[in-house]
Amino acid sequence: MAAAEAAVVSSSSLKPDTTPVPESAGMAAATAATSSAMAAAAAVAARTGSEARVSKPALATKLLSLSGVFAVHKPKGPTSAELLNRLKEKLLAEAGMPSPEWTKRKKQTLKIGHGGTLDSAARGVLVVGIGRGTKLLTSMLSGSKRYIATGELGKATDTLDSTGKVTEEKPYDKITQEDIEGILQKFTGTIMQVPPLYSALKKDGQRLSTLMKRGEVVEAKPARPVTVYSLSLQKFQPPFFTLDVECGGGFYIRSLVSDIGKELSSCANVLELTRTKQGPFTLEEHALPEDKWTIDDIAQSLEQCSSLLPAETALKKSKPEESNEQVLSCEYITLNEIKGEDDVIKTF
Fold first, then answer.
1. Catalytic residue among 17, 119, 204, 342
2. Which HAMAP family does UniProt cross-reference here (predicted)?
3. Tens digits of per-residue pLDDT, 287-309?
């Protein structure tokens, strides 16, 4: 009871201080506090702006110094060229380039290109060369590539994949898993393959796919030798079948799926295609998603991926950039621009 009374007494004795404060003093204090806060904010803003002005040239210098080969994850939708353009724009925006702060005393070109075109309907590993790394794209493309491809039996299209117009339909209901597995050996090793009409191969300097879209008559390229290192059936759920393919340069998965359909006395087209590996670069371990397309992330990836390259193709360390006073221009380098048309390596 005494404790309760003590508690009541203690709480009732805690009265607020109601001593009046002159209005003029309160306003003066508030004004002083506001002025102090505004001054502090201005100082922070000035400091932040100064840091930003310094960091952009530093980022641009770092961007210009990047050199090597790395991999990005290409989603379904954009073409390889469109994806490269998106990558370039993100890097330029991050570096604040071009900027009025940069003079024209020295012009430095940023070279960036991709190797091994993936069509808009495909996804997976896309190898990118930056700086002197663009010179390595041809040697990188001569290595093996791995794909997971899902084909659809019973339908043929003009593009040999699901994006094209259906040109033929045939029954497939009698085809079994054993039938498919039994013919895969015919498509393993060094085989002859006719490239698709819708492809990046060129005639008179123009892509066959461009000529086809114009409605022009295009003759198929002659069959050429290509290499399939391994080929296995992963899943069969009619009319769909999934293949795991490891192949060399110049190989077309669309042609393979179409030829398998014909060998089964039916027809087929590619429904889904994912490149899971190109050379030493794998989709899970090395391909950068778009949210990692930053100067720092790419620099880190270049450092990590340098150990994947053969010693004879490794880049020597370049000299430090001479100054920040450079103007950045961009140059696209696709494989067509590095090598002649006969040496272009396309895989889809």
1. 119
2. TruB_bact (MF_01080)
3. 999 999 999 999 999 999 988 88
